[in-house]
Design brief:
With 272 residues, this protein is an alpha/beta fold. Helix content is 31%, strand content 24%. Helix 1 links the parallel strand 1 and strand 2. The longest helix is centred in the last third of the chain and has 14 residues.
Amino acid sequence: MEGDEKASVSKTVLVVGGGPAGLGAARMAAMRGHQVTVVEENGSVGGLLRLAALAPGRGEIMDVINFLNREVERLGVALRLNTPLDEALLDAVNPDAVILASGSLPDMPIIKGLFTTKMDLCTVTEVLEGKITGDRVIILGGGQAGLVTADFLAEKGREVAVLNRKRHFAEEMSSNDRFYLRERLKRDTVHLFKQVAVKAFTDDGVVFTTAGNPTTLEAFDTVVVAEAMTPVRDAKQMLDRRNIDVYVIGDAKTPRNLMLAQSEAEEIGRTI
């Protein structure tokens, strides 16, 4: 609906987060005639989508971000990178409305031995951002994030074991995407386990059952957590102390797929 009517009153709108939800909401709000500023605490836009695009064969994901980035520039949206939200920024912008699109981060599960293992412990986002991992890697999580990370590491010559608690891998992916990814993972260096119940992590591995069968992995050096995501909305408390309309969208509301986040972003942009 590119022909959305202009808002009756032009407001000052602050968007917190330069991922797809934040940029999508900023674009729609600007199209309706609002004065929009986007602040992003990192040095580039894209959020987790930018990281996902680093995996093999997934570079086209950045097309969405590149389009939105061009659009907000065309519409005169002020984009401030390396800019965390704080009281001074709120005072300076003095927004009538704030769209909180601060995204999500991997949730660290509580599993016996996970925090005392001698293996390097990191998250999927840290791996995609370039954190150095060892040669033999355990990935906890068999959803899209876990499989994409396994592909990313296998491409770089690592041996990877994926532990999936569910009966099926990457259920949230389309069947075509999932088939393509599963084909890429048919390597001697990739080991996929499903219906996993983790008993404990050891100094160099993990003890678990897979479909009820006891299994032990040893001589590994890295654990990557790639399971549930948790919303990042620390700024909500700061915003609630002010008389500002606040809209929480995207992964900051609840982690979901790109299509739903984009739909929600455009809807919020239309209602302000």
